[in-house]
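[INFO] parsing input record for Kinesin motor domain-containing protein
[DEBUG] input buffer:
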Amino acid sequence: MSIPAEKEQISLPLEDARESLKSSPMGSNPDSLDGLSPVSELLNSPSIPAIYTDVNVVPEHVKNELEQSILNLEEEIAQLRLKRRSLDKRRREALNKILDIKGSIRVFCRVRPFLLTDKRRIHGPISTGSEKIVVQLAGIRKEFELDKVFLQQASQDDVFVEVEPILKSALDGHNVCIFAYGQTGTGKTFTMDGTNEKPGILPRALKELFNQASLNNSHSLTFSMSMLEVYMGNLRDLLAPKSSCRAYGALTRCNLNIQTDSKGLVEIEGLTDVPIPDFATARWWYTKGRRVRATSWTSVNEASSRSHCLTRINVYRCGDASEAKAEVSKLWMVDLGGSERLLKTGATGLTLDEGRAINLSLSALGDVIAALRKKRSYVPYRNSKLTQILKDSLGDGSKVLMLVLVSPCEEDTGETICSLSFAKRARGVESYREFPEELKKQREKKIMLLEEEMREAEEECQEVGNEIQKAEILLSENKRLFSANYGLIEDEVKTPMSTKEDLKEATGTPRNSKKVIKRNLSNSQPRFMTSTVASRQRQGAAEKEIVGRARSFRSGARSSIHFPASQSLSYSDLRFKAILQNSNRKSRYAETSTLLRESPKCNGLDTKLDTLPQSKMVTASDPNFRVTLYRHRRRKSDII
Ligand SMILES: Nc1ncnc2c1ncn2[C@@H]1O[C@H](COP(=O)(O)OP(=O)(O)OP(=O)(O)O)[C@@H](O)[C@H]1O
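[DEBUG] output buffer:
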């Protein structure tokens, strides 16, 4: 049979796809995906000649094989996804068990190094191990056991390494609270925020979250951020636009209400929640919030924090497209106000009030943690704003890390004992270290096994993720190849349709499946982007032309028709897909893409709206007090 020149052009898409597939990772190494039947195998098969000059003469079995290969790949991908999901579940369960064995409330202690400003460098507390601290006061020796003790020489790195596992819990869907507690000037802010040279937990955590999000191929993770401070029992939004806090009418921004829904979920009405798509943005907002934080002068610490500063990262965790809603978990990082004894700070007036307010809320926090530890039926969350805000992040299923910061100085020993007593109370008396030696060993062994299991699951999950990626590349190549060569002709050959029917199908009117497509079109676009009558007419004409071309192409009137590779592959238009779908009813590829489009977008911010509690229990602050407070606030940022 002689081959007209234009027929060779028709075959170009197939040849292009063949070439691009060969140069793709799978094409160059088709064996790397076990169990899948790559199209490259098909292409290398002797049954397919090097170049098809006319799609109509491509043997039917080649087309069937290609179709089968696509179906197999889709099946494989679905199964691999299931496998990844179950591996991820295994990893999460192992991590959860580890944290449960270690205790869902963990308490670390960090001893601050001596500072130049410390007058007498006489050691107060003496650490006698990595999990024990001994303090002597007036001949009385007090011993405190903790989950970890960081000595004076411990770096920010050393601290962060121990904090990391709890961050993973937040990514796994648990609510997490990390607190820095301690006397003024012991390094709470240094540990949480750090400096540019020695960044603390917060900036490191932000970086780590984005790092983990990029590695996690089983879920898409997105984040948003809020910062607020609790000052004298009032809440202030640290990320609110400046003007809104200064204007009288916007005072509510500075006195936010805490709302609890019927399920116990807490939301702070009107709190600014900014999306943080990357670390740079997160850092920018965080620096902004820090600058606003209220500080004032006391005789103990020249930049003493007179408030509790709370940073919340909302983690939106979304599986594959079939999951309608993202799971939301909260990661709170809290730099608590100094827990100083008021006489010592020499505080008077407002500073004294600030100190009192801080101490009251710290004591309320201690009560809540102790009640949770003892699994009491009543937990006194309502005793302070701080505990009301954290209500849904301190209870069941949540993880708490309390970092107790202490001074190394002898003169601070009294304060140090107070702080460590708080830590002891938070840890609870049922500490595992009071268990018999044998039990402790069993526990250590169990943790080791679980850690091993977690690592294995993590590695396998990574491998499966890579396999999915490869299979997806291959699948899209197969689909491209198929639609480039057979997409428009299959139905015509098997079930010829009238032109009218073709057009109806193309515009998506009569059949159910097409209705889906039509609905998608309107759903997936904002109203201003939907087609007008005129554009629909133009669209209709274009579709007629495509169908007409396809028909004449198939019926042998090929003289003036060809679809160059670029054209045949760049039709992303949904209507064009509808035509393809109709002309290829047997195939489910077009439908798959439609369904994917239909599934809700996994966007943290979209989801956030859904997750906001609807029924509210409002706790309002006294408005008179708010105004007074607003006028009298002293901030270091104001002074500067
Ligand atoms: N581990 C450390 N290494 C070096 N310097 C430290 C360390 N911890 C604290 N400092 C220094 O001690 C001083 C007081 O620390 P910081 O402001 O963090 O205390 P704080 O507990 O947050 O006080 P406040 O409750 O009053 O806000 C700072 O100058 C800080 O740089």
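[INFO] Residues 437-485 form the longest helix (49 residues).
[INFO] shutting down worker
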